């Protein structure tokens, strides 16, 4: 269990670094096999210069990430650390790709739907 906790902390740190200030990145603990550990990325809308607010989409950022159980096992197995490091290095590009696919805009801290779940993720770079 300590290995998974350590890896989750590293994902949180990397996502927080990529999305920058003003965004909360928090771990939502495991509840059951149907409600696994999740990573919630949320924020209020981003302020614009001059103090006014601009939003590309109608809802504030509220994205939940979950990973496939088999993928978690693979990243904890032998050789998993190298795979995990490649994944960490690719998180910025992955977040960019997810934005377009799911109508999420990290710059304005907004999204098209009230909540977005990115589930069954893998640890491929």
Low-confidence region ranges: none
Instruction: Report the count of strand segments.
Output: 7
Using the CA coordinates, give the radius of gyration. Answer: 15 Å
What's the shape?
globular
Q: Distance N terminus to C terminus?
A: 23 Å
- Describe the largest sheet: 4 strands, mixed
Overall mean confidence score, pLDDT: 84
Portion in helices:
25-40%
InterPro entries: DUF5594
Organism: Caballeronia calidae
Domain DUF5594: 6-124
Protein name: DUF5594 domain-containing protein
Overview of the molecule:
With 125 residues, the chain is α+β, with helices and mostly antiparallel strands. The chain has one domain. It is 39% helix and 22% strand. The protein is built from three helices and seven strands; from the N terminus they run H-E-E-E-E-H-H-E-E-E. The strands form two sheets. Strands 1-2-4-7 form a four-stranded mixed beta sheet. A three-stranded antiparallel beta sheet has the order 3-6-5. Helix 1 crosses helix 3. The two termini are 23 Å apart. It comes from Caballeronia calidae. It holds the Pfam family DUF5594. This is DUF5594 domain-containing protein.
């Amino acid at each position: 269990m300590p290995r998974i906790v350590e890896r989750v902390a590293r994902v949180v740190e990397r996502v927080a670094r990529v999305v920058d200030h003003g965004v909360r990145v928090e771990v939502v603990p495991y509840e059951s096999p149907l409600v696994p550990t999740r990573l919630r990325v949320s924020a209020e809308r981003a302020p614009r210069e001059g103090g006014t607010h601009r939003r590309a989409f109608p809802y504030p950022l509220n994205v939940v990430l979950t990973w496939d159980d088999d993928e978690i096992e693979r990243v904890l197995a032998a050789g998993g650390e190298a795979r995990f490091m490649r994944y960490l290095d690719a998180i910025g590009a992955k977040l960019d790709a997810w934005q377009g696919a799911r109508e999420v805009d990290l710059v304005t801290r907004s999204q098209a739907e009230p909540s977005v779940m990115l589930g069954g993720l893998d640890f491929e770079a």
